[in-house]
Structure formats: C-alpha cells, structure tokens
Write a structure and sequence with these properties.
Elements: H1 2-8, E1 21-26, E2 29-36, E3 39-40, H2 49-57, E4 60-63, H3 67-70, H4 73-82, H5 97-109, H6 122-136, E5 141-142, H7 144-155, E6 158-161, H8 165-173, H9 180-207, H10 210-224, H11 226-247, E7 254-259, H12 269-275, E8 279-282
Parallel strand pairs: 2-7, 4-6, 4-7
Antiparallel strand pairs: 1-2, 1-8, 3-5
Helix pairs in contact: 1-10, 5-9, 6-9, 9-10, 10-11
Length: about 280
C-alpha cells in the first residue's frame, strides 16, 4: 500500500531533466505538464525555477480538480460523510480483531484514543495517521499544486481541472475497498519508514527521475494491487488524455500539474502522449 501514501502527498527515459516538468508539443502548439508532490515542507521552497518559468509562459493553470471547491465547507462535509460509518457501524466491527488491536496500540503511542476515530472508515484513518506524522516531520505545508493555485488566483490567471470534485470523492471512497485490514496494517508499517520514503520521493521528484518514482510507487502497486493500480492511475490517465489533447489544439499555452505518479511508467501520461505522436521533452 506504499503508493497510497503518495496520494496524500500521488517509463524509463534516456535522460533525466532537472525537475519533473516537460514540454509537450506538436507543430506550433505547446503545453507544459509537471509532476507534483501534494505536501511539502518549508525547506522545499523555493520550488525548482522551471515551474515558475512554465507558469509565467502559461495562460491557464490546469489541476487535477478544483482545489478551492474541494475545501468548501459543504464539500468537506459531503466528503466526510462518505468516509465515515453510518450509525450502527464502527471501525471495530469492520476490522479483524488483530488489526484493530494493532491500530489501538499505535494510537496509544500517540496519546490518541481509538474512540476518537471509531466512526472513521479505514481510508480516513489512513489519511489522519499520515497527516499527523507529516506534521510531526514538518512536511504538511502546501504542495506544488496548492502553491500555484493560489498564485493563479492572485494573478487572475485562468484555472482548469481534469476531473470533478465528485470524481475525486469517488476515488477516495473506493480506495482499497475490500482490503481494509491490509490498508491499516500496511499504513502502520509504512509510517515507520515515512521519513526515508518521503526523502526518496522528493529527491526523485526534484530530479525528474520517473524511473525511481515508478520503482517507489507504481511497481509495488501494480504487482500487489493491480485493480487499485488500474483505478487510481490507468483509468484516470485515460480519462484525462482527451482533455490534454484538446488543450494542445488551442493557440494558448497551458501548465498542467498532476501527481507525479501519473507521469511515470508505460501507462503514464508522458508515454501515452508520445504514443499519440506528440513531442515530449524535458523543460
């Protein structure tokens, strides 16, 4: 379940660029597509200068979804409702006793009561634990997408999205469905490795090393959880491609920012765009 941690953050090349940013073009039209880490620390700023250069050239910023809508109280309430058990159900009666006991022991070390998350579904428990640990590590500041979303609002730059907030809610709600015990147990295990893992992820991201990102996040998920890999990455990449191609048919230049794992591997956006005849080069 290591790749799930990247969501809270989400193809071998002949040479690596200086950072996770590429120029995609055909003829006289172009756009920029960048991989992001969704949570960063203060030490990760300033961001690589290529992102600022691409942002300055772009007339529109395109993100995975509408971040401002995602943080509206009504949307937050709807999302929370989908990630919590209805009355009469609880975390305890939806997990194996051994899993529940392991979670209870971990929470005790954090001085947290299991009662405080009793109505949370495993996905919400995972997100809570990861964000708690990231805050402890000083890695819970705004990521690349949130940073440029705020910049675009300040500058009055056009904003676009690749999928609706409802789609994002569907993805979260169905994350690891049927694998709830594995999700909790693997999260507890991965939390111990989180400092090293985040260091490896951020290094690969800053270096534009998609091969390493594939090894860290994609290969384990594709091997151990093929259905999850297909739902989280393959299906969403395929649904985004027509929109990206439509942007390439306009005279304007766009900057598209997506989780870095969406760019890596044979099913990644960059490989798919190359297969469709577009020129993809490091920026």
């Amino acid at each position: 379940m290591r790749a799930l941690i990247f969501l809270c953050l989400l193809m071998p090349l002949q040479a690596f660029p200086d950072t996770s940013l590429w120029r995609v073009s055909r003829g006289d039209t172009e756009l920029f597509i960048g991989g992001t880490v969704h949570v960063l620390g203060k030490s990760d700023y300033p961001l690589p200068e290529e992102f600022g250069l691409a942002y300055a050239k772009a007339r529109m910023l395109v993100l995975e979804t509408d971040l401002d809508a995602l943080h509206e109280p009504e949307i937050q309430s709807r999302l929370l409702g989908r990630l919590m058990y209805p009355e009469g159900q609880s975390l305890e009666n939806n997990l194996k006793p051994s899993t529940y006991k392991a979670l209870e022991a971990y929470l005790k070390k954090l001085d947290m009561s299991v009662a405080s998350i009793q109505q949370s579904k495993p996905v919400l428990v995972m997100m809570t634990l990861i964000m708690t640990e990231l805050q402890r590590l000083g890695l819970a500041d705004a990521g690349v997408d949130a940073f440029f979303n705020q910049q675009a609002l300040t500058d009055g730059k056009s904003l676009g999205q690749l999928e609706s907030v409802s789609k994002q809610m569907d993805v979260l709600e169905n994350l690891a469905k049927g694998h709830e015990d594995e999700l909790i147990l693997n999260t507890l295990d991965e939390l111990e490795q989180l400092p090293v893992l985040m260091g490896d992820v951020k290094k690969a991201w800053r270096n534009g090393d998609l091969t390493q990102l594939e090894a860290l996040g994609i290969t384990p998920m594709r091997k151990d959880y093929p259905a999850l890999y297909h739902m989280l990455l393959v299906e969403r990449n395929l649904s985004w491609l027509p929109q990206i191609e439509a942007f390439l048919n306009t005279p304007d230049t766009e900057l598209i920012l997506v989780g870095a794992l969406h760019l890596a591997g044979e099913d990644g956006l960059l490989a798919q765009l190359r297969q469709r005849g577009y020129k993809v080069e490091p920026f």
